Amino acid sequence: MVPVPARRLVVLLHADIVDSTGLVQLDETRAHQRMQDAFVRFSQAIKEYGGVTHELRGDALIAEFARASDAVCAALAFQRDNRVHNRAIDDAICPELRVGIAMGEVVIDQQTVTGGGVVLAQRLEQLAEPGGVCLQGAIHETVPRRLPFAYAALGEQRLKGFDEPVRAFTVRLKDGAGIPPPESVDGAIRLAGGAAPGNAHRRRAKSTLLLAPIQPPGGDAELDQLAAALEDAVLTALANATGLRLVTGLEDADFELRIGLQMVARRYRATVKLVESSSREQFSSTRFDGVCEDLFETVDQLSFRVATAVRNDMLKREFERARTVPIADKSVEELLSEAGMLSTRVETATLERADRLLVQALELDPENFMALAMRAQLLVLVPLTGFRPIGREAGEQALELLARARELNPRSDFVYLSLSLVQAYYQLDLDAALRSATKSFDLNTAWINPLGMIGQIEIYRGDAPSGIDKSRRAFETFPQSEMAFFFCDTIALGYFVASDYAQAIDWAERAEELQPGLTYRLLLRIALHVLHGQPGRAADLAARLRERHPDFSCAEMRPWPFADKSCEGRLLEGLRAAGLS
Length: 581
Fold this sequence. Notes:
With 581 residues, this protein is α+β, with helices and mostly antiparallel strands. The chain is globular and about 80 Å long. The chain has 20 helices and 15 strands. It has helices spanning 20-26, 28-48, 68-87, 116-125, 137-142, 221-239, 295-323, 332-342, 348-364, 369-384, 392-408, 413-425, 430-443, 448-460, 464-477, 484-497, 501-514, 519-531, 535-548, 565-577, and strands at 7-17, 52-56, 60-65, 97-109, 112-114, 133-136, 149-157, 166-173, 184-185, 188-189, 207-211, 244-247, 255-264, 267-276, 281-291. Helix 7 crosses helix 8. Strand 7 and strand 8 form a beta hairpin. The chain starts with 6 loop residues before the first strand and ends with a helix.
């Protein structure tokens, strides 16, 4: 199961390739590559202006924005750049796009967007000229007049599927004007005077990735259809990934993603390989097997798994690369890369080293939203490696850092995930934590960490079956993930809530194999073995806890955020029965 989709009011952008059928008839392979290239470039512009690309539908794209001005800027920036791009092409396969922008209520469920707003944006797009942009009247009224845009009224239009006429406008840049730059570039707000000159050599652009065309063995129409749909879905998923920029030329790529696809009697095998462009070294290879019973369901599941594997393996590679750079010479991004990987190893000394790296990153770039959010997360994680409550000073500082991070980037999946952690474990506000984790997942449905966090919060709220289901999905999507231990711990917690102590012990032991020695798990395991009628094993684990924390006291243990306090009562009952007072 996935989070229940919520209806909300957003700004929708719909873009369509002009005469895609005609382009395909000229040269099918070249047309497909160039249309995909256009969508990758448009997705990047959307991302830079704070939008989220939700769907690539063959020859169409759908994106969501929080602000109308950002949607208009992204559309005009792409159309301007696409005209320049097409002038350099020496044949007739030059994809042009029409763009429509509207405001309306939609339901966003994973990567699928439905609702009247989508249909309205699509109808407006059909009114635009090739290379042009058409707006709903509500968008025209919302965009600040200080921006350098020129409008032409198209009057009230009768649009298919709408009972009432809709006012429409075309929009272009005023003559001689430039497009307003995005507020956020490469993960940090642009300061009024730019980056400090002394830090210019300490900054490195986010990693770039090229997705090579998926070219399955010929002669199988069903496999060709799966390959085309998967390529679109993977591009959409990766376009929304934090810290990553998609490119279309190998010369611009730090990494190349190659996906091999085979199918026999509806059983498929996808092989995902990552190659470092500079060395041409293949450093990652992952295989996914399954059965294609429904094309759309298979594409959703497989693109989720592919994007997760790519994100995980690129982060590990960047961590390895960052570790080789002397501490004084590390860029902000290298500091964040190393700190990010260290923070997945939930041990006090490792987390404290990660915190020192983040302090250094913030000295170089005080307005880096990722560094702020990561530091906030560590302020909570460090005390969570022990048994005492999170201190007020650390908790309040974490909330302040996250408030600033949200101001700098209100559409960061990582910021909302970090906020959910603080809300759950410091504020003990499960409703707020669930809203934040769900927001994180809505912003990037190709990231398993918020899905696992949603599962954990649901378990604390008392819905163990749903929480277990989500956490298992996160774990099974990519068991090699650095966060696999967290998903196993959450599943163990769910079975504890459900009073299935045998299953809980099994999953806790899996988590221990992946990431040994965590105190919160040791406490849970002691109680589980008591409740399952294994006092000897519980006593052994209790002795281990006393060695690690000679001053342990049940009275001083931090509260576990169970909505049903009887769950915490069972936990304490097990600990006391094992001789822990």
